[in-house]
Amino acid sequence: MTAADPRSAGPALPSAGWEIAGTDPVPTEEPAIAVRLDEVVKQYPNGKNALVDVDLVIPEGDFVFLVGPSGAGKSTLIKILVHDEVATSGYVEVAGRDLTRMSRRQVPRLRREIGIVFQDFRLLPRKTVRENIAFALEVTGTKGPRIRDTVERLLALVGLTDQADQLPGTLSGGEMQRTAIARAMVHDPRLVIADEPTGNLDPLISWEIIQLLLRINEMGTTVLMATHDAEVVTALRKRVVALEGGRIIRDEVGGYHRDYA
Amino acid sequence: MHLIRFSIRQSLEGLGRNRVMTLAASVTMVLMLVLLASLVVVLAGMQAGLAFVEGKVEVRAELAGGAPANLVFGLQERLEALPEVAEVRYISREEALEEFRARRAEAGEEDLSAYAGYNPFPAQLSIRLRDPRQSSQVLSVLLEEGGLVERVVEQQKVIDRLVGVTALLRTVGVAILVLVGLTVLLIVVNSIRMAMMVREQEIEIMRLVGASDTYIRWPFIVEGVLIGLIGAGVTLLLLVVAYGPISQLANIVAGQVPVGFSEALVAQVAILVLGAGLLLGGVGAWISVRTYLRRA
């Protein structure tokens, strides 16, 4: 993270403030928080508890794996982070915004701070790679020349400049996922959430995608990746948060993957 | 500006992609608008006809033969004093005969009075009313005159019937129009709902990447308005084509009654058709989009 990052300042991050209060008033030293969950509970209308007392802090710039068996609450957690679902109780903060007190109108702004990538890519089949990426800018009111510049930059970042005019149907799985990642990056998000991004890809291609996410992380973006891919998690030795039955059962930096593959 | 361009592009694409539904919505829209235009034109025609007939209507009092002139004059003055009377005219026997002959000649028919050998017409008082529906006062004055007035000829019943028909037509027409309008509204709502379902994936991605509701909503509202515009356009085209035959028909039916298609009426109908089309399209789409976004 750059020292001049303006996001680390300001009243939106009170918790980061008190940790160093009185000792070092220079705000540039604070670790800014990308995600903070305090005692988050999510109960669905059918009475099922999807999340129970979840506490989680992800500082900006981190790369975090989210692991756990199916039904452990990974999807619910991600939905809460993008405000697709609202926590039943507890405090949720993403990119400096309090999601527990967020109105409908504020959600689009939040979503522009978060890039989301899915296992099934979710590309528009009638649009080319370039159009798929540009669409995300168009619908958020970006002007033409800026769209073109941003799209070209992102095509270069994910290495799809040569395939820019192809339709998703003619692409390989890896190329489709790279398109989706480029689309997720259009607003220079502070946080990228990848939900099983390699779930449909073979191991070699999976590594390409991981490499791309690592590069994005090195450029300063926080990455939260939900995965079943034990090999990847073990090899990278990043922070691993394990969910089971709606609870965080393990949260270790440089962790491993045990039996959740 | 950007939003407008985006909405128009998306909605045109949507209309093209969803042709059957677009067609169904537009056709019912045309049906409804044609109905609306016809109703307005017919009612305007009836209104004009009514006004024309009402202007001509009068109560005629046929005077007894040899009624003294001073008494007739007195009666005339008393009638003129009534507030609902516009004008009282004395028609002598000779004038009555002349009137009859003139009417026959105008209609191109034989002068039957020549066969009579004498003038069969009595002298008359012709009373024009300000409001033809208020003749009771006049009638009672005339009836009091027992000896002086032989017979009262009223055209009132014709008017009553015309007024009744016009009112009935208006009621029935408006009722049908409301029903058809509701149907059109529902079809537009449904058509836009289908358009949104076709674009479900696109809407989901728009939400994902942080598009505001405005950007999600407007392409569909524009789509509804465009359906209205297509409907109104086709309707106006039909009316232009049908204008000649209809006015001819109206002339035959109405005879010398001027059921004029004035330019003002044509402009009114055009604006009404266009306005109704755009409004129904827009409102239908709005309802559809609102309920969809609430649910999602």
Mind explaining what this structure looks like?
The complex is a heterodimer of chains A (261) and B (296). Chain A has eight helices and ten strands. Chain A is an alpha/beta fold and 261 residues long. A six-stranded mixed beta sheet of chain A has the order 6-7-8-3-9-10, with helices on both faces. In chain A, strands 2-1-4-5 form a four-stranded antiparallel beta sheet, with helices on one face. In chain A, strand 4 and strand 5 (97-98) form a beta hairpin. In chain A, helix 5 crosses helix 6 (173-184) and helix 6 runs parallel beside helix 7 (203-218). Residues 1-25 of chain A have low confidence and may be disordered. Chain B has helices at 2-17, 19-56, 69-81, 93-106, 113-116, 136-144, 156-198, 200-208, 213-254, 263-295; strands at residues 58-63, 85-91, 124-129, 149-154. Chain B is elongated and about 100 Å long. The model of chain B has no long low-confidence stretch (mean pLDDT 83). Chain B folds into two domains: 2-52 and 160-295, no CATH class; 58-154, 2-Layer Sandwich (Alpha-Beta Plaits), CATH 3.30.70. Chain B has 296 residues and is of the alpha+beta class. In chain B, helix 2 (19-56) packs antiparallel against helix 7, helix 2 (19-56) packs across helix 9 (213-254) and helix 2 (19-56) packs antiparallel against helix 10. Chain B contains ten helices and four strands. A four-stranded antiparallel beta sheet of chain B has the order 2-3-1-4. The interface between A and B is medium-sized, with 23 and 17 residues.
